[in-house]
């Protein structure tokens, strides 16, 4: 299969979607990951945040943003005065993609075809969550919603309109963790979140 579409119970509620997502075989990524990590948070919610894909911790625990990137995101949301428990958090791709190096599982960026295959889940999450604002964390999420030619570096901190949805864009928290100048990267991330919050 090359799409989640045949596994998605269209029009159903969040609980039915989440439970169906556990059996998704819409692309190859279910094979090596431990489990599907579906989005979580209040339904409906004013704010939806979309990351790239679950990381190693998320794959083990089955919950979004519980690893190092999630801790950084929590801190930045608090600094921007955005309540994490009022946001629905999810990812463009629902399975962890990695390569093994010894005992470590190293994150690999999903292919465009995998993002496209997984999109029916995200589309249904948007339908049930009905967010006033969607914030894309990083280029993979931004391209999933705004098209493959979208350039994050030219638009970070901005809110765009697409198909009647308000879509804000900023970097992925993992890019802040990897940055050489951590303080500068973190402050720019918080500044983006503060600017995006105004669109709520
Ligand atoms: N990075 C993401 O994009 N999503 C997660 O859930 C965790 C790390
Ligand atoms: Fe299905 Fe998405 Fe997992 Fe691929 S990554 S198997 S499309 S849930």
UniProtKB/TrEMBL annotation:
Keywords: 4Fe-4S, DNA damage, DNA repair, Hydrolase, Iron, Iron-sulfur, Metal-binding. The keyword Cell wall biogenesis/degradation does not apply. SMART domains: UDG, UreE_C. Pfam families: UDG (PF03167). InterPro entries: UDG_Type-4/5, Ura-DNA_glyco_family4, Uracil-DNA_glycosylase-like, Uracil-DNA_glycosylase-like_sf. SUPFAM superfamilies: Uracil-DNA glycosylase-like. Residues 38-194 form the Uracil-DNA glycosylase-like domain. PANTHER family: TYPE-4 URACIL-DNA GLYCOSYLASE (PTHR33693:SF9), TYPE-5 URACIL-DNA GLYCOSYLASE (PTHR33693). Belongs to the uracil-DNA glycosylase (UDG) superfamily. Type 4 (UDGa) family. This is Type-4 uracil-DNA glycosylase. The gene is dpo.
